[in-house]
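Dear support,

I submitted the protein below through the web form. The confirmation email said the job was done, but the results page showed an empty box. After a refresh the structure appeared. I'm attaching both so you can tell me whether what I see now is the final result or a partial one.
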Amino acid sequence: MYCPQCGTENLDGANFCESCGAAIGAVLTPGAENAANPFAVGSQTANASNGGYNGDAPVVPSNVLSAWKMVFSKYFDGKGRASRTEFWYWQIFLFLVIGIPALFLYGKLASMGFNGETFVESDSALPFPPSVLGALAWILIWAIIVFCPNINLLVRRVHDFNTTGWLVLVPFLFSKLSGIVQLVFGFIPGTKGPNKYGPQPMKR
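What the results page shows now:
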């Protein structure tokens, strides 16, 4: 008998997990095809201690496009879990739509005398060429578009390692370290098997 909370194998008939103390008496013994691991595909959803999450196991995306579709399909949804793969593919997407234009914008401004804070030669700063205004508009529009799905992805990412979604507020409390803290979320491995936020993301 396996614990639905931490995945530890316990003696048959045990009411509580010897590792984490979670109640396991009601957990069904997995079928023969999953006897070695009740958290295998096909069994983890049924055996999950899901804390109210009733969805199917999340999918691990196979490329940037599938990650983009997945994140946007959960635009206002922070329930469930997100794998590290989904997180990093999303970061690649953000770099493509915001990072590269931002580098272009900075390069154009630098050529006009911008030193990172102010314009060294104020006369060269105005008027801004259409390329600068276009890049700025593109970045602002996409920043607005991805704000909500990005927050919800972070919430689902911390859910994956069995932590409350409120943890995503930490980067905003330490604004100078915001980007670093968010990237750290992408390195923490998720819980093996189901946790209280839902089934483990799996490949399909």
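Response: this is the final, complete result; the empty box was a page-load delay. The radius of gyration is 23 Å.
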